[in-house]
Protein backbone atom coordinates (compact mmCIF):
# COMPACT_ATOMS: atom_id res chain seq x y z
CA UNK A 1 0.00 0.00 0.00
CA UNK A 2 1.27 3.45 -0.85
CA UNK A 3 1.37 5.49 2.33
CA UNK A 4 1.19 9.26 2.03
CA UNK A 5 2.46 11.43 4.85
CA UNK A 6 0.11 14.24 5.84
CA UNK A 7 2.30 15.48 8.65
CA UNK A 8 3.90 18.89 8.93
CA UNK A 9 6.96 18.14 11.06
CA UNK A 10 7.54 20.34 14.07
CA UNK A 11 10.85 21.03 15.76
CA UNK A 12 10.98 18.34 18.45
CA UNK A 13 14.00 20.03 20.04
CA UNK A 14 11.68 22.75 21.34
CA UNK A 15 10.24 20.41 23.96
CA UNK A 16 13.55 18.72 24.77
CA UNK A 17 16.18 19.39 27.43
CA UNK A 18 19.45 21.05 26.44
CA UNK A 19 22.94 20.87 27.91
CA UNK A 20 26.50 21.68 26.82
CA UNK A 21 30.04 20.94 27.93
CA UNK A 22 30.50 24.35 29.60
CA UNK A 23 28.85 27.75 29.74
CA UNK A 24 30.75 30.88 28.75
CA UNK A 25 29.26 33.69 30.87
CA UNK A 26 25.46 33.59 30.46
CA UNK A 27 25.46 31.82 27.07
CA UNK A 28 23.62 28.70 28.17
CA UNK A 29 22.55 25.77 25.95
CA UNK A 30 18.87 26.79 25.91
CA UNK A 31 19.69 29.83 23.75
CA UNK A 32 19.79 27.53 20.69
CA UNK A 33 16.03 27.02 21.04
CA UNK A 34 14.73 30.53 21.74
CA UNK A 35 13.95 31.33 18.11
CA UNK A 36 16.25 34.36 18.12
CA UNK A 37 19.19 34.80 15.78
CA UNK A 38 20.49 37.55 18.07
CA UNK A 39 21.36 35.10 20.83
CA UNK A 40 23.62 32.06 20.82
CA UNK A 41 25.11 29.34 22.97
CA UNK A 42 28.81 29.55 23.82
CA UNK A 43 31.15 27.10 25.51
CA UNK A 44 34.51 27.90 27.04
CA UNK A 45 37.66 27.47 24.97
CA UNK A 46 38.29 23.78 25.65
CA UNK A 47 38.88 20.30 24.27
CA UNK A 48 35.99 18.67 22.38
CA UNK A 49 33.20 21.14 23.26
CA UNK A 50 29.66 19.85 22.71
CA UNK A 51 25.98 20.86 22.75
CA UNK A 52 23.16 18.35 23.23
CA UNK A 53 19.37 18.16 23.18
CA UNK A 54 17.54 15.25 24.83
CA UNK A 55 14.24 14.73 22.95
CA UNK A 56 12.96 12.74 25.98
CA UNK A 57 11.97 9.80 23.77
CA UNK A 58 13.16 8.14 20.57
CA UNK A 59 12.30 9.95 17.32
CA UNK A 60 12.71 8.92 13.70
CA UNK A 61 14.47 12.00 12.43
CA UNK A 62 14.02 13.41 8.95
CA UNK A 63 16.40 16.34 9.20
CA UNK A 64 18.48 18.45 11.55
CA UNK A 65 19.01 22.17 11.16
CA UNK A 66 21.79 24.23 12.69
CA UNK A 67 21.89 28.00 12.38
CA UNK A 68 25.25 29.67 12.68
CA UNK A 69 25.63 32.89 14.63
CA UNK A 70 25.84 36.09 12.61
CA UNK A 71 29.24 37.07 14.04
CA UNK A 72 32.28 34.92 14.88
CA UNK A 73 30.55 32.19 12.88
CA UNK A 74 33.78 30.28 12.40
CA UNK A 75 33.21 28.87 15.86
CA UNK A 76 30.91 26.21 14.40
CA UNK A 77 33.29 25.12 11.62
CA UNK A 78 34.39 21.50 11.93
CA UNK A 79 31.37 20.58 14.05
CA UNK A 80 30.08 17.02 13.88
CA UNK A 81 26.40 16.25 14.25
CA UNK A 82 26.14 13.03 16.19
CA UNK A 83 23.11 10.97 16.96
CA UNK A 84 22.91 7.94 19.15
CA UNK A 85 20.57 5.58 20.91
CA UNK A 86 22.42 2.55 22.25
CA UNK A 87 24.92 2.95 19.44
CA UNK A 88 26.84 5.77 17.77
CA UNK A 89 26.37 7.22 14.33
CA UNK A 90 27.37 10.38 12.52
CA UNK A 91 24.83 12.23 10.42
CA UNK A 92 24.77 14.99 7.87
CA UNK A 93 21.94 17.54 8.00
CA UNK A 94 19.64 15.24 6.07
CA UNK A 95 19.12 12.28 8.38
CA UNK A 96 16.80 10.03 6.39
CA UNK A 97 15.06 7.89 8.96
CA UNK A 98 17.69 7.73 11.68
CA UNK A 99 16.28 6.93 15.10
CA UNK A 100 17.58 8.51 18.26
CA UNK A 101 16.74 10.29 21.46
CA UNK A 102 19.75 12.63 21.62
CA UNK A 103 21.14 15.04 19.04
CA UNK A 104 24.69 16.18 19.73
CA UNK A 105 26.85 18.78 18.04
CA UNK A 106 30.49 18.66 18.96
CA UNK A 107 33.81 19.97 17.67
CA UNK A 108 36.70 17.51 18.00
CA UNK A 109 40.06 18.92 18.99
CA UNK A 110 41.87 21.12 21.49
CA UNK A 111 41.26 24.84 22.10
CA UNK A 112 37.84 24.87 20.45
CA UNK A 113 34.74 26.96 21.13
CA UNK A 114 31.28 25.75 20.14
CA UNK A 115 28.73 28.50 19.59
CA UNK A 116 25.45 28.11 17.70
CA UNK A 117 22.45 30.34 17.26
CA UNK A 118 19.60 27.87 16.66
CA UNK A 119 19.10 24.13 16.35
CA UNK A 120 16.20 22.05 15.07
CA UNK A 121 15.37 18.34 15.02
CA UNK A 122 12.44 17.36 12.81
CA UNK A 123 10.90 13.90 13.09
CA UNK A 124 8.22 11.70 14.62
CA UNK A 125 8.18 8.79 17.07
CA UNK A 126 8.78 5.65 14.97
CA UNK A 127 5.77 3.45 14.26
CA UNK A 128 3.19 5.91 15.55
CA UNK A 129 0.28 5.72 13.07
CA UNK A 130 -1.47 8.71 14.61
CA UNK A 131 0.89 11.27 13.12
CA UNK A 132 -0.43 10.54 9.62
CA UNK A 133 -4.06 10.83 10.70
CA UNK A 134 -6.56 13.66 11.01
CA UNK A 135 -8.00 14.71 14.37
CA UNK A 136 -11.29 16.35 15.29
CA UNK A 137 -13.23 16.85 18.54
CA UNK A 138 -16.73 17.63 19.78
CA UNK A 139 -15.87 21.24 20.65
CA UNK A 140 -12.70 23.29 21.04
CA UNK A 141 -11.54 25.38 23.97
CA UNK A 142 -9.78 28.46 22.58
CA UNK A 143 -6.54 27.44 20.84
CA UNK A 144 -6.59 23.87 22.16
CA UNK A 145 -7.14 22.29 18.75
CA UNK A 146 -7.76 18.57 18.21
CA UNK A 147 -4.59 18.08 16.14
CA UNK A 148 -2.41 19.11 19.09
CA UNK A 149 -2.96 15.60 20.42
CA UNK A 150 -1.02 14.17 17.46
CA UNK A 151 1.77 16.76 17.07
CA UNK A 152 4.40 14.46 18.68
CA UNK A 153 4.73 16.90 21.60
CA UNK A 154 3.54 15.35 24.85
CA UNK A 155 3.14 18.72 26.49
CA UNK A 156 5.51 18.01 29.36
CA UNK A 157 6.89 21.54 29.27
CA UNK A 158 3.92 23.53 28.04
CA UNK A 159 0.20 22.73 27.95
CA UNK A 160 -0.15 24.61 24.66
CA UNK A 161 0.72 21.26 23.05
CA UNK A 162 -2.58 19.74 24.21
CA UNK A 163 -6.11 19.54 22.79
CA UNK A 164 -9.19 20.32 24.87
CA UNK A 165 -12.96 20.41 24.46
CA UNK A 166 -15.27 22.81 26.20
CA UNK A 167 -17.11 21.78 29.38
CA UNK A 168 -19.96 19.75 27.91
CA UNK A 169 -21.92 16.48 27.91
CA UNK A 170 -20.08 13.46 26.52
CA UNK A 171 -17.02 15.26 25.09
CA UNK A 172 -15.15 13.24 22.46
CA UNK A 173 -11.99 13.33 20.36
CA UNK A 174 -11.59 11.34 17.14
CA UNK A 175 -8.61 10.28 15.05
CA UNK A 176 -9.12 9.24 11.44
CA UNK A 177 -6.19 6.96 10.52
CA UNK A 178 -7.25 7.34 6.83
CA UNK A 179 -6.84 3.56 6.33
CA UNK A 180 -8.04 0.50 8.22
CA UNK A 181 -5.41 -0.76 10.65
CA UNK A 182 -5.16 -3.68 13.05
CA UNK A 183 -4.47 -1.70 16.23
CA UNK A 184 -2.26 -3.38 18.81
CA UNK A 185 -2.09 -0.55 21.37
CA UNK A 186 -2.97 3.05 22.08
CA UNK A 187 -0.77 5.31 24.22
CA UNK A 188 -2.41 8.24 25.99
CA UNK A 189 -0.52 11.10 27.66
CA UNK A 190 -2.33 13.07 30.34
CA UNK A 191 -1.71 16.76 31.02
CA UNK A 192 0.97 17.61 33.56
CA UNK A 193 0.07 21.04 34.89
CA UNK A 194 -3.34 20.41 36.47
CA UNK A 195 -6.72 18.74 36.23
CA UNK A 196 -5.37 15.23 35.68
CA UNK A 197 -8.58 13.70 37.07
CA UNK A 198 -10.54 15.02 34.11
CA UNK A 199 -9.29 12.04 32.08
CA UNK A 200 -10.78 9.52 34.52
CA UNK A 201 -13.41 7.29 32.93
CA UNK A 202 -12.47 8.06 29.32
CA UNK A 203 -13.28 5.27 26.88
CA UNK A 204 -10.98 4.31 24.00
CA UNK A 205 -13.08 3.12 21.07
CA UNK A 206 -11.86 1.68 17.77
CA UNK A 207 -13.77 0.77 14.62
CA UNK A 208 -14.92 1.74 11.15
CA UNK A 209 -18.31 3.28 11.88
CA UNK A 210 -18.99 7.03 11.87
CA UNK A 211 -22.32 6.47 13.64
CA UNK A 212 -22.67 8.79 16.64
CA UNK A 213 -19.37 10.39 15.59
CA UNK A 214 -17.68 6.97 15.87
CA UNK A 215 -18.52 6.77 19.57
CA UNK A 216 -20.53 3.57 19.07
CA UNK A 217 -17.48 1.62 17.92
CA UNK A 218 -16.19 -1.20 20.21
CA UNK A 219 -14.29 -0.32 23.38
CA UNK A 220 -10.59 -1.13 23.62
CA UNK A 221 -10.21 0.12 27.20
CA UNK A 222 -11.62 2.43 29.85
CA UNK A 223 -9.04 4.71 31.48
CA UNK A 224 -9.35 4.61 35.29
CA UNK A 225 -6.73 7.35 35.79
CA UNK A 226 -3.40 8.53 34.40
CA UNK A 227 -0.96 10.42 36.68
CA UNK A 228 0.09 13.94 35.67
CA UNK A 229 2.34 14.01 32.62
CA UNK A 230 2.45 10.21 32.35
CA UNK A 231 1.95 8.13 29.18
CA UNK A 232 -0.07 4.94 29.67
CA UNK A 233 -0.31 2.18 27.07
CA UNK A 234 -3.55 0.25 26.48
CA UNK A 235 -3.47 -3.07 24.63
CA UNK A 236 -6.19 -3.41 22.01
CA UNK A 237 -5.32 -6.95 20.85
CA UNK A 238 -5.43 -6.22 17.12
CA UNK A 239 -8.80 -4.44 16.90
CA UNK A 240 -9.59 -3.46 13.31
CA UNK A 241 -10.50 0.13 12.64
CA UNK A 242 -9.97 3.38 10.82
CA UNK A 243 -11.22 5.56 13.67
CA UNK A 244 -9.83 5.85 17.20
CA UNK A 245 -12.03 7.76 19.63
CA UNK A 246 -11.79 8.95 23.20
CA UNK A 247 -15.06 9.87 24.89
CA UNK A 248 -15.87 10.76 28.49
CA UNK A 249 -19.49 9.82 29.24
CA UNK A 250 -21.44 12.19 31.48
CA UNK A 251 -22.41 15.81 32.00
CA UNK A 252 -20.06 18.72 32.75
CA UNK A 253 -16.97 16.95 31.39
CA UNK A 254 -13.84 18.27 29.69
CA UNK A 255 -11.63 16.08 27.49
CA UNK A 256 -8.03 17.30 27.43
CA UNK A 257 -5.46 15.24 25.58
CA UNK A 258 -1.75 16.06 25.42
CA UNK A 259 -0.81 13.22 23.07
CA UNK A 260 -2.31 10.06 21.64
CA UNK A 261 -0.21 7.47 19.83
CA UNK A 262 -1.50 4.47 17.88
CA UNK A 263 0.56 1.38 17.05
CA UNK A 264 -0.45 -1.51 14.83
CA UNK A 265 -0.21 -2.87 11.32
CA UNK A 266 -2.03 -2.65 8.03
CA UNK A 267 -5.17 -4.77 7.85
CA UNK A 268 -4.78 -7.33 4.99
CA UNK A 269 -8.34 -6.44 3.90
CA UNK A 270 -7.18 -2.85 3.43
CA UNK A 271 -4.42 -4.01 1.07
CA UNK A 272 -6.97 -6.03 -0.95
CA UNK A 273 -9.37 -3.05 -1.16
CA UNK A 274 -6.57 -0.80 -2.44
CA UNK A 275 -5.52 -3.33 -5.08
CA UNK A 276 -9.15 -3.65 -6.17
CA UNK A 277 -9.55 0.14 -6.27
CA UNK A 278 -6.45 0.55 -8.47
CA UNK A 279 -7.67 -2.26 -10.76
CA UNK A 280 -11.04 -0.49 -11.19
CA UNK A 281 -9.28 2.80 -12.00
CA UNK A 282 -7.08 1.06 -14.60
CA UNK A 283 -10.14 -0.57 -16.15
CA UNK A 284 -12.01 2.77 -16.34
CA UNK A 285 -9.02 4.47 -18.02
CA UNK A 286 -8.72 1.62 -20.56
CA UNK A 287 -12.47 1.69 -21.21
CA UNK A 288 -12.42 5.47 -21.85
CA UNK A 289 -9.56 5.07 -24.34
CA UNK A 290 -11.38 2.25 -26.11
CA UNK A 291 -14.62 4.23 -26.43
CA1 LIG B 1 0.64 17.11 21.79
Automatic annotation (TrEMBL):
Gene3D superfamilies xref list: Galactose-binding domain-like (2.60.120.260)
Leader sequence residues: 1-20
GO MF entry, a single one: metal ion binding
Transmembrane helix among keywords: no
Domain Fucolectin tachylectin-4 pentraxin-1: 9-125, 126-270
GO BP term (any one): regulation of cellular defense response
Quaternary organization: Homotrimer.
Family: Belongs to the fucolectin family.
Main function: Acts as a defensive agent. Recognizes blood group fucosylated oligosaccharides including A, B, H and Lewis B-type antigens. Does not recognize Lewis A antigen and has low affinity for monovalent haptens.
Protein name: Fucolectin tachylectin-4 pentraxin-1 domain-containing protein
Source species: Sinocyclocheilus grahami
Amino acid sequence: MIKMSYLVLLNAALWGKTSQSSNYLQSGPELALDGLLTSWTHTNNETNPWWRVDLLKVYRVNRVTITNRPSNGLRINGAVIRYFFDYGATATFSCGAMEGRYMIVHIPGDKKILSLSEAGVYGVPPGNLAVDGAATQSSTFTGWFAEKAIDSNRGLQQNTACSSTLNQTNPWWRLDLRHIYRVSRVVVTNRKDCCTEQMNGAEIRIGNSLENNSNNNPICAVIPAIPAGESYSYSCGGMDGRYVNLIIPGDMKILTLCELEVYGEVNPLNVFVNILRLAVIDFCIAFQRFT
